[in-house]
Amino acid sequence: xxxxxxxxxxxxRTLHLIVHGFRTLSRLLLIAAVSPREHxxxxxxAEAARLPExxxxxxxxxxxxxxxxxxxxxxxxxxxxxxxxDRVEPMSSSxxxxxxxxxxxxxxxxxxxxxxxxxxxxxxxxxVYRVDLDGGxxxxxxxxxxxxxxxxxxxxxxxxxxxxxxxxxxxxxxPLADIAxxxxxxxxxxxxxxxxxxxxRRLRSVLAEVPGTVVPEPYAAACADxxxxxxFIDGLDRSLIGRLPSEAREAGVAALVRAVYHMLFVEGFIxxxxxxxxxxxxxxxxxxxxxAGFVFRMSDMARTSFTRFFAGMIQGDxxxxxxxxxxxxxxxxxxxxxxxxxxxVAGLVVRNAGALARDFDLAAFAVQLFELQRxxxxxxxxxxxFPLLCLLSLEGTVRRFHPAMDFQLEAAPYxxxxxxxxxxxxxx
Length: 428
Description:
The protein is built from 17 helices and 9 strands. It is of the alpha+beta class. The chain is globular, with a radius of gyration of 22 Å. Pfam families: ABC1 (PF03109).
């Protein structure tokens, strides 16, 4: 799937970013200067949210992630960015039809008619269409043309910037290139729809034992390179959660949290794309997870270490958390103050242990933890970035719709299950 972008493509992509960035800045300044005060914030947010859509590629994915963090970007900006989840400018019907025709030797029955109608959802990677099959309605997810080339260029730029940043003295020991490489591979993997169909089946199997979760069934006979066909789940509305009674809303959020914790601590199977275009809440208190493209499979060592670290967080055992981080450090410099590192990490954990969702700021915690590693030049396993990204988007939903939840304590049964599984496997 991934190919090295040509110098010409990189130059064209860089110019595209510069031009649209400058145009957006000019529009923002104009709006700030001439808009009435009562409409200024809304108009500024709407214009700023158009930038990631114009840039596309990995920048659009970043906009979708930011939309889940109303606590960081504010209500107006989160609302404006929310359109990026499922209402991005769609590809034309002719583009969708050509993409599907290139994927199949012969289009499945009903596809041609379905792809000439407007999509039911339009995201950063693909558009989704409804088709009526013999077994009932299905959803066809068709990959956008040229999206692979755009992502390859963006990832190449990110990797280049990471290598440059590593030369800055303060960042010299930070594994930025490793993080950028793993993130790039994960993003490129999202474009592999054959892999997504496999991931969707795995996700459905993994979450079958988690009450309150719904994952659509993929239809293997109607899947191909660039096309995933799955069960169509009707009545989905990403704005519904804000109108639900508190009991149904909190039940749905709790189901999502349990699903994520089961995937993370028991399976090591991380969904990195839990925005409201992929996660829907229903009136019956269940949560629907539609997408399985942007996922990451943790190594057994990384999953075990992260699970043990979270167990230490739940118990307020800062010293254990520090030891776990140290056990994953690749290299300890001769002048590293390991004792001070232990003390600083332990203090950070103790200060944040046991907080409710409304009081626990995972983003601030992650930044402080990273700063401690940078200051002491002791960096933990780069794979930890992926569960943190997953939990950051999850935390945004929890803080907004179930702020009284004990975000850490809710993980306890799954942390214990993960640790028990590890112990049983080690004994056999």
